[in-house]
Amino acid sequence: MTDSRDLCARAFAKIGETGFSSLGDDSEAGRIASVLYRGVCDGFLSAHYWNFALRRQMLPRLLRGGRSGHLYSFALPRDFLRAVSAGRDDTGRGLVYHIAGTLLEADSERVVLTYIARVAESFFPPFFQEAFVGHLAAEFCIPLTENTSRARALRERATMLLREAKLIDAQQDTPHAFEDFSLIEERMS
Q1: Contact 30, 39 (CB under 8 A)
Q2: Which pTM does this prediction carry?
Q3: Closest Cα to residue 37, out of 130, 136, 145?
Q4: Of 40, 45, 22, 47, which is closest to residue 142 (Cα–Cα)?
């Protein structure tokens, strides 16, 4: 089963570091992983609309109004990383909203949020794992080795792996059909 320790060990192996046993262990690699891992992971998940990390949820409305001029405030989910869209219905699209801290504010009494969630490592698909491990290796390289040329090479490889992962992820869904035919309708009238 894949976990944070496994992903970090794979990243350190790409750098040539074999002394890593767990996040926060007494080794230099363990300390680096302990400091950097969660932020790098959340940032990598947030950087793309990964299909496996997409969630849709009706948000609980709070009693007070919004601070940004919107009528209502809603609590964001605990696993929230990044908003994709919001709506009034199950499509979760088409609503004007504002996110401030842990709140979503809107002028609707009901909000369905589509968002990127913090996902447990055991749910990372293989194509995502490879890209993420490459990215981790690039992030861990300079603090561990102080070798900028090696870090640059790892970053280039990570960028290629990310492109491949995005392509594979895009193939995990039926392409969206055009919903707005206003130009065609205008031309026909």
Answers
A1: no
A2: 0.83
A3: 136
A4: 40
